Amino acid sequence: MTTTTVAKVLRSDYQKSVASYWNNEKDPVNLLLGDVDGLYHHHYGIGDYDRSVLEGPEDTRDGRIITEMHRLETAQAKILLDHFGDISPADRLLDAGCGRGGTSFMAHQRFGCQTDGVSISEQQVEFANDQARQRGVADKASFHFRNMLDTGFETGSCRGIWNNESTMYVDLFQLFAEFYRLLEYGGRYVCITGCYNDVTGGRSKAVSRIDEHYICNIHPRSDYFKALAANNLVPINVIDLTSQTIPYWELRAKSSVATGIEDPFLTAYREGSFHYLLIAADRV
Amino acid sequence: MTTTTVAKVLRSDYQKSVASYWNNEKDPVNLLLGDVDGLYHHHYGIGDYDRSVLEGPEDTRDGRIITEMHRLETAQAKILLDHFGDISPADRLLDAGCGRGGTSFMAHQRFGCQTDGVSISEQQVEFANDQARQRGVADKASFHFRNMLDTGFETGSCRGIWNNESTMYVDLFQLFAEFYRLLEYGGRYVCITGCYNDVTGGRSKAVSRIDEHYICNIHPRSDYFKALAANNLVPINVIDLTSQTIPYWELRAKSSVATGIEDPFLTAYREGSFHYLLIAADRV
Amino acid sequence: MTTTTVAKVLRSDYQKSVASYWNNEKDPVNLLLGDVDGLYHHHYGIGDYDRSVLEGPEDTRDGRIITEMHRLETAQAKILLDHFGDISPADRLLDAGCGRGGTSFMAHQRFGCQTDGVSISEQQVEFANDQARQRGVADKASFHFRNMLDTGFETGSCRGIWNNESTMYVDLFQLFAEFYRLLEYGGRYVCITGCYNDVTGGRSKAVSRIDEHYICNIHPRSDYFKALAANNLVPINVIDLTSQTIPYWELRAKSSVATGIEDPFLTAYREGSFHYLLIAADRV
Amino acid sequence: MTTTTVAKVLRSDYQKSVASYWNNEKDPVNLLLGDVDGLYHHHYGIGDYDRSVLEGPEDTRDGRIITEMHRLETAQAKILLDHFGDISPADRLLDAGCGRGGTSFMAHQRFGCQTDGVSISEQQVEFANDQARQRGVADKASFHFRNMLDTGFETGSCRGIWNNESTMYVDLFQLFAEFYRLLEYGGRYVCITGCYNDVTGGRSKAVSRIDEHYICNIHPRSDYFKALAANNLVPINVIDLTSQTIPYWELRAKSSVATGIEDPFLTAYREGSFHYLLIAADRV
Amino acid sequence: MTTTTVAKVLRSDYQKSVASYWNNEKDPVNLLLGDVDGLYHHHYGIGDYDRSVLEGPEDTRDGRIITEMHRLETAQAKILLDHFGDISPADRLLDAGCGRGGTSFMAHQRFGCQTDGVSISEQQVEFANDQARQRGVADKASFHFRNMLDTGFETGSCRGIWNNESTMYVDLFQLFAEFYRLLEYGGRYVCITGCYNDVTGGRSKAVSRIDEHYICNIHPRSDYFKALAANNLVPINVIDLTSQTIPYWELRAKSSVATGIEDPFLTAYREGSFHYLLIAADRV
Amino acid sequence: MTTTTVAKVLRSDYQKSVASYWNNEKDPVNLLLGDVDGLYHHHYGIGDYDRSVLEGPEDTRDGRIITEMHRLETAQAKILLDHFGDISPADRLLDAGCGRGGTSFMAHQRFGCQTDGVSISEQQVEFANDQARQRGVADKASFHFRNMLDTGFETGSCRGIWNNESTMYVDLFQLFAEFYRLLEYGGRYVCITGCYNDVTGGRSKAVSRIDEHYICNIHPRSDYFKALAANNLVPINVIDLTSQTIPYWELRAKSSVATGIEDPFLTAYREGSFHYLLIAADRV
C-alpha cells in the first residue's frame, strides 16, 4: 500500500494502533482454531460445550478442546447469519471488520451472493484474500483495506451488513451513518457485540481491562440503540446471548490457547456489567 | 367520579372517545373468554392452537375454541411476565392500560407483589376492582381510573411497568417520559404491541382499518425505539412474535366471537405491514 | 416504464399500493368535474356554494352541482397560487403530487413560467402530459413519474413548490428536506392540506376512516410546523380554511358523485378533530 | 419593593436596563394617546388612517392625529383578542409584558374574565393597577411586578396568554417553555410582534437601530416557529400584518409625538427586512 | 465580476449591504495604520500601549499614536497565529473574512505555506491581491471573492482556518458546518471575536450601537460553543482578551482616526456586556 | 449510615465499586503528602519542580520529593480557585467529589465563604469533617455523603462549583444538569480534569490502563463541551495544562510513593492521547 492510501484508511493515531495490533496478531486461539476447517474467526462462541472433550486421553485433550471451541464460534456466526432471512444470489453483503474472513465465507456459502469484507489491518485483508483464492471464491468473496466508517462503496449498494464483534473500535453514530448510506431501503443490519451494561453503571474494572487488552472502546448498551435510532435503523430482534457465551469462556479458560483475558470476560459477564448481545435491525 | 376528576383524567376529546368505547365494550371475545377462569384479557394470543378443537361434536365446538383462544391469550401474558425476571414480593409493578385486570392478577399470583393497574375506562377499573375483591387480593392488586401519561404515582416507585397492547392509544414519547419517572433506577419495562412496519412504508389500508375499529393510533416500529432511546429505556430483548400470533387470529376467525376485525389483522400480518412485537428494556 | 425505474420511484409496498390506487382511480367526482373545463383537480373546494344549484329542474340539477363543485375546487387552487406572490416567467415551479395536472395548468397560465409536476401514479402523469399536449403547453408544463421525496431535480432549481393535498402520503421531515434542497434561497413553499388536530388528541375514528379510504396517513397539525422548522422553511401566512371547506362537502354529499367519504369528512371537520389548513413559508 | 424581590424579578443587567428604560419612560406617544379614553397602549397600530385628520384647522390637527393613532392602536389590540375565540368569564388570561394595561382592560371588558398582567417595570405595574382601581375592576384585572420568563403563577392556570409587542426582550425558547407550563391543555397563545426577515438575511441597519433605541433584541421570524415547535405550541393562524401597519407609522411620522424611531421602522418595513406578524397557536 | 457570480456570492440583501459597506469603506483607521508597514488590518489590537506616544511634540503625536495602534493590531494577529502550533510549508490555511489581507500575509511569512483569503467585498479582495503582487507572494497568498459560508473549496483541503473579527456577519452554525467540511481531520480553527455576554443578558444598548455601525450581528458567547459542539470542533484553548484590548480602545479614542464607535466599545467592555475572546479548537 | 441512605447515594454497582475503592484507599501518595501541612489532596500537580530536591542527602531525598509534590498539587488547586474571580464571604461554593477536603479548605481560607463538599466515599467524608473540626472551621466547611449527580441541595444555592479531577466517574450530561440546577444565574463552574483527545481518536491503551486502575471512565475532550453547551454553561477560559503537569509525573515516578500508574500517565500525555485541561464556565 502506498503511504497515501494508508493515511486515508487510518486517519487517527488510535486507528493506527488498532491496525498495528491486528497486523501483528498471531494468537493461536485464532490461528489454531481456524486451521480446523479453514474458517478463521475473530469472535467468540455460543452454546454449551460438550463436557466430554475435557475427559479422555491427556495428549489429545487440547485438540478436542480446540475443535470444540471452533464449533462454538462457527455456531455464533451461524446465528448471526440466520438473522438475514432471505438473501438472494444477486444481493450483496458487507462484513464490516472482517478479520480473516470466517463469517464472510460462511455467508457466501449459504447465500451464494457477493460478500465484501473490510478491515483496517492489511495483514488480515491479505490473509482473507488468500483464503478466498484457495477456496476458489475470489470472484465472489473479496476483502478490502478500508475503514468501515468511510468505505467508499456505492450508496445503497448493500442488501445486508454485519459487524461480528467489531463495533467496539469505532464511534457508533459515525458507523451507522455510513451503514445507513450503504444499505438499500429495507436492507438488514445484524451485529453481535459485547457491550457494557448501563444498569450496573459505568465501565467496570473488568471491562476497562478488556479495553486495554484489545485497545478497544467498549460501548454502553444504550449507545447502540441511540445510534440506531439516529440513523433510521429499526430493531426487529434483540437477543441477550450472555448466558449462552459463558460456557465458551469457561472452556477457553481451560485450554492451552487461553490468552489471559478469559478472567476479565468471565468476571464481567457474571457480575452483570457486560452483555453479549445480538441486534438485528432494518434500514428504513 | 366527579366531573373534575374525569376532566383531569380525560384531557382530550380523543381520550374521551377511547374511554367511551371501552366503557361500553361488552364483546363476547373478551367476556366469554374471561369467564373460562376469571382472567379477563384485553389482548391477543400467541402459540399454535390445538387443531383438535375444530373437530369433534359441533355443539361444543365453540366452547372448545373459546377455551383454546383463552389459553393462547394467557400464554401471551405469561411470556410478557417472563421478561421481568426476578421480582420480589416487596416490589411494585404497574399495569399501564390494565383493561379488566387479567395480566395484573397473573403478575400478583406469580410474584406476590403489589400490582397497580390504570385505565381511562371507569367501567374497566370498576370491573377489575370487583375481581380483586372476589379473588381476595384487593389489598395487593388495585386498579385506578388514571391516565397512564400522568399517573400521579410517586417518582421511582415502580420496579416494573408493562403495556399489554395499550400503547397505541398514546404518544410514546409522553408515555415513556412518565415511565422513566415512575421506574426506579434499573427497573424493567416490557410491552407487547402491534406496530406497523416502517419497511413496508406508511400505515397500510388494513392497519388504518384496525385504527378505525378501535379508535387507536398504531405506531410505526421505529417510534418505539426512538421514544425508548429518548427516555433512557434501553432494550435488552426484542422478539418479533408475528408468526406466533397468526394462528390465534386464524382460530378466532373461525369462532363464534369473531368481531370482523380478524381479516384486517390477518391481512396486515401476512403482507408484512404489521408486526406483533415484544420489547423488554431497562431504565437507566 | 422499465421495472428498474418503477422500483426506483416506488420504493416501498406502501407507495406501490398508493400508486396502484391512483392508477386505477376513475372516480366521477374527479373526472366529471374536470370535464367541465379541462382542469382535472384532485383536491377539494372552498367558499360558499350557490344555493340555487340545488333548486330548479331535476334533470339538470346534477350538472349544476358538478359545475358548482368544480368552481369551488378551482377557487381553492386559486387561493393556493395567490400565496406565491410575484413569480416571473423565468422562474420554475414544482407541483408535488400533481394528480392530473389541474393546479399546474392554472399556475402556468397565471405566471407564464415553467411548471413541473411529479406523481407516483404513471396513469396520472400520462393523463396530465396528454392534457399539456392538447393545451399546447407541453414545452412549459410537464409531468414526471417521480417520487416527491427524491425528485432527482437539480438543487436550488425551484422558485416555488406546492402540495395541493398530497402531503398525507409521505413523511413530512423527508419531504421538507427534499424541498429545502430544491428551493432557491428565499423560495416559497405553499401547501393546502387536511391535518388532524393535536388539541382534540390522536386520530379520531373519522380521520382513520379517511386514512383507510385513500390509503393515506393524515398528519397532526404539529408535525407540519416541526418539519418546517427542522428544514429552514419559515411560515409567513397560515390560514385555517376549515369553515370555508365545509360547504363544499355539504354540496358534494348531495351530489350524484358522492363517494361515501363525505360523512367522515363532515364529521371530522365539525367535531374539530380535523383542519383544512393553508401554510405559506419561505426557504432560508 | 424590597431589594430581594427586585433581584428575583430582574436577574440580569440587561433586564435591569430594560426595566429602568420603562420606569422612566414618559413618551407623549404613549401617554397622550392613552389620555384619549384611558386605554394606555404600548404597541403600534394597524389599518388605514382617515386622511381627513391631516386636513382642517391647524390648531386641532395634532389632536385629530393623536385620536386617530389611538384608534389604530386599539384596532390592533382588538385583532389580537379576536384570535382567542371563545373565552368564558371563568377563564383566566395572562398579558405578558403588560405595559400600562391597555390590552388587559380590553380583554376583561370583552370576556368578563380574570386577566393578569406582568411587567418588569414597577412604574408600569403601579400605573396599571391605579387604572384598574379607577375603572373599578381591580378584583378582576391585576398587574404584577414579575418576570414573564418565570411568573410564579400556577401550572396550567391560564386559558390564554398573549404578548403584545413584548417578545423582543426575552429568549423565545425560555418564554415559550414558561407559557407551555402556564397554559392548560388546549389553551391559546397569541402574539403580535415585529420580527426580522430571515429571507433578507441578518439584522439590517434599521433593525439594529430599533434594537438600540428600545434596548431590545428583535428576533428573526424563524426563531418564533422553532421555539413554538420546541414547546408544543402549534400555530393555527399566522398573519403578515406588515402592509397594515405602515399607514400607522406614516401618520405617526407626521405627528407632534414622533420620537425619531419612525424612520427606521418605515425603512425596515419597506425594504422587507422586518415584518409585523400575528401568530395564534394552541398548547398541546 | 459578472452579475451571476455576484448573485451567487451575495445571496441575501443583508450580505449585499455588508459588501457595499466594505466596498466603500476607506476609514483612515484602517488605511493609515496599514500604510505603516503594508499590513492592512481589519481588526483591533491587544496589549498595553506605550504611554510615551501621547507625550512629546504635538505635530508628530498623531503619527506616534497610529504607529502604536498598528503595533497593537499586529500583536493581536500574532497571538491568533500562535494558536496554530506547527504548520508546515506544505499545509494550507484559510483566512475567512480576510479584509485587506493583513493576517494572511503574516501567516504566509511565518509558516511559508499557501494561504487563501475570502471576502464578500470585491474591493477588499482586489486590494489584497494587489498587495500580494507587490510583495511578490501572489503564488502563495491569494484572495477570493467568495462567501465564507459556501467557499467552494475542496473538502478536507485546509490544515487551519481562522476568523479575525469576521464571525459577526454570519450564522455560526452555517459557518462551522462549512469549516468542518473544509478542515482535514485534526485541523485547527482559531478565531478572535467580540461577543456579547450571556451573563449580563441580551444585547446591551452599546452592543446594538456597534451592530448598527457595522451592519453586523454580534453573537452571544454561548452561540460560539453551541455551534462548535454541533460541528465537531473541540476547544483546546479559550482566552478572555477583554482586559487586554481596552488599552487599544483608550488610545484610539485619543487619536485623530477615531470613528466615533470607540465609546460604545469601551462602554460595552467596561460594563461587562461584551467580551473580546480567542477560541482555538480542533476538528475531529 | 443506614442501608437506605447508602442505597440512595450509591445507586449502581459501578458507584458502589468506586466508593469501595476510595473507602479503602490509603495510598501514601495521598496521605504522606497531606501530612505535610494538613491539606489532603486527591489530584495531581502543575508547574515545574525544583530539580534540587533530587540531589543532596539520600536519606532525606524522599521527604524533599514529597514536600515538592505537595507544593505542585497545592499550586494546581490554587490555579483552579483563581478562576472563580470575586467570591464574597456571603457566597456558597460546592466541591463536587471533594476527596479528603484539600481544595475546600483552601477555598474557605481564601474567600471566607461557606464551602460544601460531597463524596460517595463515607470514609473520605468522615476524614474531611474531622479535618474541619481540627481546623475549627466546621461551621463553614462541611462535607456530605452525597452523590454529585443528585446532591439534594437547594436550587440556585451555589455561587460556584468545581470538580477537581472527579468528573471521570460520572456522566457529564447528568452532572452538568445538576450543576445548572444548583448554580445561581451567572454562577461560575471550574474544573480541572484529564480527558482523552478526540484528535488522536478513541481511548488509547494507556488511557484504558488508567481507567482500569481507578475504575474510572475518562471522557473525550469533546464530551465536556457538548455537555456544557447542553446545560447552559458557557466557557470563558479553557487552558491546556498538559505540558505543565508532566514535570509532576516525572518527579512522582522517581518518588517512593509511586503507585505504578505514573507510566501510563506519562505515555498518554506524551503521545498526545490525553490532556490535562482546565475549564471555567458561566451558568446562564
Question: Please, could you describe this protein's structure?
Answer:
- The structure is a homohexamer of 284-residue chains.
- With 284 residues, chain A is of the alpha/beta class.
- The first copy, chain A, has a single domain, classed as Rossmann fold (3-Layer(aba) Sandwich).
- In chain A, 45% of the residues lie in helices and 19% in strands.
- Chain A has 11 helices and 7 strands.
- In chain A, strands 3-2-1-4-5-7-6 form a 7-stranded mixed sheet, sandwiched between helices.
- In chain A, helix 7 links the parallel strand 4 and strand 5.
- In chain A, helix 4 packs across helix 5.
- The first copy, chain A, is globular.
- The termini of chain A are far apart.
- The model of chain A has no long low-confidence stretch (mean pLDDT 96).
List keywords for this structure.
alpha/beta; Rossmann fold; homohexamer
Parts with pLDDT < 50 across at least 5 consecutive residues of chain A = none
Global outline of chain A? globular
Element-level helix/strand string of chain A: HHHHEHEHEEHEHHEHHE
CATH class of chain A: Alpha Beta
Determine the CATH superfamily of chain A: Vaccinia Virus protein VP39
- Tell me the structural class of chain A: alpha/beta
Report the sheet-strand fraction of chain A. 15-25%
CATH topology of chain A: Rossmann fold
Question: Which sheet architecture does the biggest sheet of chain A show?
Answer: 7 strands, mixed
Number of helices of chain A: 11
The rounded Rg of chain A comes to: 18 Å
For the residues shown, what is the average pLDDT of chain A?
Answer: 96
Termini of chain A, distance in Å? Answer: 36 Å
Number of strands of chain A: 7
Q: Can you name the CATH architecture of chain A?
A: 3-Layer(aba) Sandwich
* Order of strands in the sheet with most strands of chain A: 3-2-1-4-5-7-6
Biggest contact = A-F, 25 and 25 residues
> How many separate domains make up the residues of chain A?
1
